[in-house]
Amino acid sequence: MPSPFGARALLALAVAASGALAGFLLNGDVQTLLVGLVCGTAAVLVAGGMGDAPPATLNTAPAPVQAGPPVGDVIEAIDEPLLVIAANRVRHANRAARELLGDHILGEDVRVAIRHPAAAERLLSPEQGAPAAPVHLVGLGTRDQRWELRVRDIGEGQRVVHLRDSTGSYATERMRVDFVANASHELRTPLASLLGYVETLGDEAGDDPATRNRFLKIMFDEARRMQRLIDDLMSLSRIEAEKYRAPSDAVDLAELVEEVHTELATGGGVRAADIVVETEAVAPVRGDRIQLSQLLHNIIGNALKYGRPGTPVTVRLRPGGSGMVELSVADEGEGIAPAHIPRLTERFYRVDSGRSRAMGGTGLGLAIVKHVVERHRGRLDIASGVGKGTTVTILLPLQRVS
User: Fold this and answer.
1) What tens digit of pLDDT does each residue of 227-240 get?
2) Which end of the chain is less congested by CB atoms within 10 angstroms, N or C?
């Protein structure tokens, strides 16, 4: 017959496991499941030494109780920072917590150990009912890190403090918000211009043929600008949706370079004659022909836009070694200051906003290039010197021979 403590321990552990599993099913969070199990295990361990001794029975020795691992050993299994506190002092801290807060935190007041004003109130407030929403902490650890703090009561005056690093999810959300704001701004500007000219044409200006034609041309240009932006947004969305599925077609990149060169040369641009193509014999790459064509149009188009008139835009294709093909496009323009280079592939980032818009740029060209290269499991490098020009180099993997 199991001891009263054994039955209580098994029941408590079953309830803890059920609660943790329910939390996992509701939130889909593995760390939440692990933390719930740790909390339940800790509660069982605490209860192990607190109950009354089982009554002795005639000629029957009490069943031995198997001691579980110490709480400190249990929480070491969790990768995220965990602390067990009692009377507001840190009794146990796993390695992740000690690396974040320091080895000295054991025995300290938890408010001193964490040292964050937003955490102090929650740490002093006893847990009542369902767990409260997490507290968001900024600046704990490094200046840019963001954490979520959760506190859960495990009974017998002890609580578990769980710190979860939310820096990555915050950055993703910030990028999404910035993207929506920038896209809205980029669309609103030409739309406002269109509405203004439509209103003007409805007045007396529409009676003058020369004025009407000039306004209609401006309206047409603004509409095309909106169309280019929407096309680039849709392209970026499609590429991002496919980024985890590597392309598998064999693409003759030398042939594709010549095709794009012909398209740009026959387009009648003022700099079409400045394009110089130098290709060596290379094997086909593993890729998506449409996306690689868009990549070529973007990087060659940028070189034509920002290079000095009359200077060459050199497109080179050659073996890159280690099963790769190297594609580079170099211009002899004004170049880019080093501070701007890391941000060139950000959406809507422009070194010179006025000049870029005047040339018809959407601010998405290099962002599309970056995502195409990532989907193709390649590498992208941008090198530039002020007054010397810019070189964009791309390495793409060869098509494997099955």
Assistant:
1) 888 888 888 888 88
2) C
